[in-house]
Design brief:
By secondary structure, the chain is α+β, with helices and mostly antiparallel strands. The protein has 6 helices and 11 strands. The protein folds into 2 domains: 205 residues, Brix domain (Rossmann fold); 26 residues. Helices cover 36% and strands 28% of the residues. Keywords: Nucleus, Ribosome biogenesis.
Length: 295
Amino acid sequence: MDDEQQSDNADEECEDDQLEEEVATVNTKTPSSAQKYKQRVLLIASRGITYRYRHLMNEMHTLLPHSKKDAKLDSKSHLEDLNELAELNNCNNCLYFEVRKHQDMYLWMSKTPNGPSVKFMVRNVHTMDELKMTGNCLKGSRPVLSFDKTFDLEPHLQLLKEMFTQTFAVPRTSRKIKPFIDHIMSFSILDNKIWLRNFQIIEKIPEKGLSKEPEISLVEIGPRCVLDIIRIFDGSFGGSTLYENTLFVSPNELRRNIKAEINAKHQGKAIAQEEREKKKLHNLPAPDPMADVFI
């Protein structure tokens, strides 16, 4: 009997040792597997950026604790240099704010160094200072990404959804994050454009004695902007075209159409004025032959 009890105790000790080894291996593998998912975003602007777009970039940097901001890029023709800058800053995503004519801003979102990349036209930009919304969130907190169901209908929108997720979703392994989720970044599609919004999550605790769940509401924080898709490329900041928006109208063409309408309006007024003058001359009374009789 003593031998049987000793053998049972030995078997139990062996099983306990195996369990401890398995738990130890799981604990050692978990952080290494979690650290494999690394996403860092490089924020960089072109030379000549205006104050409004600079404030938008700074607010994006505040909302993305896994981002890093670099100096301005001097050249607008050699965008391939951004891949080297991203590699030097240990970033695998890049948001490039390109401003042309001090009024038009284009946003490049790229997966460096191999792509893909997408070029947006940014419209209707409103920063937090302009909106002055009552919403607020903790600096460094992780957002919840909310996508419209339209993103799952077409292939290019599915690609954009994945790129937005890898760029704006803050990894839990980031060093600068806070262990809180208190705001939502919303991506909605309307009129073939992507509307970006940022909301605070507010939980209202019910009164004592009530067994209801806390009421959840959303309050907008800002910033807000509209992204108009121009083209999706196979590579990083270039390459073959995967998708092209045929409905996109460049701001230069819009301004040209507005000037043409104004010129056409002025030309119409000038032509109408000439016609009125001709009509006045045509309707002048004929000379009276009896006008000089009594002179």
